[in-house]
Specification:
about 80 residues, mainly alpha, SinI_DNA-bd, DNA binding, DNA-bd_dom_put_sf
Length: about 80
């Protein structure tokens, strides 16, 4: 049996996102907000579950996650939880 998805308090995280000045977040900021490791965030990006962009054309730069992408990710993940 698969482990249940973690349910995040969407409103609380949305408030944290709104407070940030930048339109994009680092992998580490996302990890801290969601209380997961940065490796988990990287895996979500690699699996196209979380949309992000790389600061380098060659893909060797730093990853950035748009605020809107994180909010969509949270909504999608939380809607998958069925009581």
């Amino acid at each position: 049996m698969a482990a249940p998805f973690k349910v995040w308090e969407e409103e609380s995280i949305s408030k944290q996102i709104e407070k940030l000045a930048s339109k994009n977040l680092t992998i580490y900021q996302v990890a801290r907000m969601l209380q997961v490791s940065h490796i988990t965030v990287r895996r979500w990006i690699k699996e196209a579950k979380l949309i992000a962009w790389n600061t380098s054309i060659e893909g060797k730069g730093r990853w950035r996650v748009p605020k809107e992408s994180l909010e969509e990710f949270l909504q999608a993940r939380n809607s998958m939880n069925i009581d």
